[in-house]
Amino acid sequence: MFNFTALPPLSLYIHVPWCVKKCPYCDFNSHKAPETLAENDYIDALIRDLEQEIPTIWGRTIQTIFIGGGTPSLFSAEAYERLFSSLRALLPISHNAEITLEANPGTFEQQRFADYLSLGINRLSIGVQSFNDQSLTALGRIHDGQQAIKAVETAHKVGFDNFNLDLMFGLPQQTAKKAREDIETAIALAPSHLSYYQLTIEPNTLFHQQPPTLPDDDPIHDWQLDSQQRMAKAGYLQYEVSAYAKDKQQCQHNINYWQFGDYLGIGAGAHGKISDAAQQSITRLSKQKQPQAYIESAGSDNVILTNEVISTRDIGFEFMLNALRLTGGFPTPLFYQHAGLPISHIDKALQKAEQQGLITWDIHRICPTERGQRYLNSLIELFLPD
């Protein structure tokens, strides 16, 4: 039985499912945009979805908002103005809430950056992936390196002082020189945050069906270490497996995920996790994935695709799956606060992880060691229920 004395922070995730084209490595719920985007119908559906969810989070304040995709920057500022009017009417939103919108570097999207800022969107996450034209072509991206640079310059120019760049390494035909040039270009553009992660081949992607030739693991690891050193020297400190930030510029929305906070999910394929103090329960749910099915069912029970109540048996793994991604670990009391159970519930797994040199822990803090960070999957598996 859970025992929540207080509920964890609450975030809002909004999913926009369309892209100009589907990238061959992408396993997110994204779909090629039709010639005429059903922008108004989709905003109507999001509002109906939110209205239906409100009783589950009644009275709680939204601390962060993240609009992901897909390519949310395909939607006009007018569409988001209507959405945000409804959000503010229906929900208490913290006055200093971090509000992020994912954007692509295409010229069409860049023209909207200033309008997004004026609506209260105060953080961008720009999907650059690489600045090398050959790499971008191999990834199926529709922008080139110069457009990527221009997008970042535009973000600076219109007044975004907080934005992330997504950058990948271990790309088809990538060399040490190209990987180094990518990270140096990114640093020179002075974002507040960098998401730097290795390309992995995921199921249900074109790359899985037609695998590209990728560099060997050993040089990829060397490139990663070299890039981490370059980022650290430039003031980007690693705080999660693939996240690096300037001082006090960490992504608060993602930190809430990693610390097992709650999040409301609206939109096609969106996921949510909600703790209930009255029921002493934690529920995960997801919405219809296909955009048209979502639009038609939003506001009704049919919009729910999956609905699962997390058991106390699984809670240790569920919590650690997220929290151990943080390089600095987490305060030990956080487990009780956000998982609703005493730390003794996972005592055996903690002792085993410590014996294997994967974590350090005491009454104040639980933290993965350097070895634990490198063998993160093995560390997390120790918390699987017997």
What's this model, at a glance?
The chain is an alpha/beta fold.
Task: Describe this entry's structure for a reader.
It is a single chain. The chain is an alpha/beta fold. It has two domains: 10-255, pyruvate-formate lyase- activating enzyme (Alpha-Beta Horseshoe), CATH 3.80.30; 320-381, Arc Repressor Mutant, subunit A (Orthogonal Bundle). The chain is 37% helix and 24% strand. It contains 16 helices and 17 strands. A nine-stranded mixed sheet has the order 9-10-8-7-6-5-4-1-11, with helices on both faces. A hairpin with a 2-residue loop joins strand 9 and strand 10 (243-245). Helix 1 packs parallel to helix 2, helix 1 (39-53) crosses helix 11 (291-297) and helix 7 (176-188) packs parallel to helix 9 (217-233). The longest helix is centred in the middle third of the chain and has 17 residues, at 217-233. The chain is globular.
Secondary structure topology:
Elements: E1 10-16, E2 18-19, E3 31-32, H1 39-53, E4 62-69, H2 77-90, E5 93-103, H3 107-110, H4 113-118, E6 123-129, H5 133-138, H6 145-158, E7 163-169, H7 176-188, E8 193-198, H8 206-209, H9 217-233, E9 237-240, E10 243-245, H10 252-258, E11 262-267, E12 271-276, E13 281-287, H11 291-297, E14 304-309, H12 315-323, E15 330-331, H13 333-339, H14 347-355, E16 359-361, E17 365-368, H15 370-374, H16 376-381
Parallel strand pairs: 1-4, 1-11, 2-3, 4-5, 5-6, 6-7, 7-8
Antiparallel strand pairs: 8-10, 9-10, 12-13, 13-14, 15-17, 16-17
Helix pairs in contact: 1-2, 1-11, 7-9
